[in-house]
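As a warm-up, study this chain.
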Amino acid sequence: MREMVVKHAKKKSFHGLAASSFVAGIFWALGVTIGFSIFIAILSLLSQYLTYIPFIGPFISGFLNFLLSFNNAVR
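Now compare it with the structure written out below.
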């Protein structure tokens, strides 16, 4: 496998390899962004149901009040 990668890398010019790596990096970042957004959306949907659990509900409420206090301080 390693020989195949080295052989492929030697065939490309520096500019072709740089362009290929740049495009691969863009798509990797796009995938991470979309995946993280989906993860946060699912986590926020689940947090709506966690407020009914006695120990977690007050913690989430206190955390949200803490965040909102900073939001009001900024304005």
